[in-house]
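lol ok so funny story. i was supposed to be doing the assay writeup but got distracted and ended up predicting the structure for this chain instead. priorities right. anyway since i did it might as well share w the group, maybe its usefull for someone
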Amino acid sequence: MSSLLTALGLRAASPLSPVPNLAASYIITHFALAYLFLASRTLKQIYSVDHNVSPREDLGKYGDAAVRNGKITQRQLEQLKRMESASANSVENFTLFVGAMLFGTMAGVPATDVNATGLAYTVARCGYAIAYVLIDAPSLSQVREVCWWVGNSTCLRLLWVGGVALNSKTSGA
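and the output, tada:
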């Protein structure tokens, strides 16, 4: 368990070694989540509904025809649309996450706090993505909203802690 906590940046490898700040690793992870893993492009290519000329309009222009022609099912079309929405939301939230991680780091927030924020945000956003893409029942889709709020709350908390850290340095000088 100790090695897992060390790998996640929540504990030092030894009492004399510092905890590394993993902000860059978490930022790269969320870039990949938003732009690669949640990108619907690969699935659209597998289903043969990808049009390279204007891929952002594939599902709107050709989705219903693909269902009528039997290329995909209505459920697959709806899942692809949810995947595109999850990707768009991840791209939109990326700036808040990057800002919080950088601000916390530059404000001198301890690495364990920055890393804990990165981990909590990652868990929340993975839950969000899974819930968004896979859940099609309205009652269960509330899981997505809870995950969204948890993720954003972790970023807002780190911004707050960073502000407190900066103000304590200013008032102590």
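The chain has one domain: 20-168. The first helix runs from residue 2 to 7.
back to the writeup now i swear
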